[in-house]
Amino acid sequence: MKLVIIDRDGTLCVEREGFLQSPDDWEALPGALDAVAQLNQAGFQVVIAANFPGLGRGLFDMTTLNAIHARMNRQLAAAGGRIEAVFFCPHAPDEACDCRKPLPGLFRQIGERFKIDLAQVHAVGNSLADVQAATAAGCVPHLVLTGHGAPAQTDPLPPDYPAHTRVHADLAAFADAFIAEQEAAAREAQEAPPAMSGRPA
Predict the structure, then answer these.
(1) What is the 8-class DSSP label of residue 77?
(2) What is the pLDDT of residues 164-187, one digit of tens each?
(3) Active-site residue, from 9, 25, 117, 155
């Protein structure tokens, strides 16, 4: 199984002040829907992992959240893409849960649900909390420079970012680079000489 985990607000869609509180607030970032479709076409399932503290604070309810995601899914389908599942932390920051990023609980839930080694999974987000959660879970972290959480300085990244964080302009740039890397690795594996077996004469 091949899986990519992405953040939602600021990575897939426009990040709003005060959270997305209605379907009308949903607006995909430029190229993001096509990026998901591109990943799907390359054989990757895409899953969202996101903090939704507005639920815990009572700013919106599950009916509204489902309506937001129904709009998201319709737009994705029109672009030829699909989100396999949305994993989210509904808790407010003071609730001391283990699923709110930068803690890795959501990622571990995804690993358990899909029965996949998270070391094989690449995770994309636009904030320090995203890359810290991905790293703590054992994923390969990618930072996109969209949304409110992106750092002002990226060359070099601030020292609190994991040293192996990969940086991309946006989700579309990630998809292009990631798929090209996967295709190059597959070609290299095909061209490698077969391993020798047995003892030398």
Answers:
(1) H
(2) 999 999 999 999 999 999 999 888
(3) 9
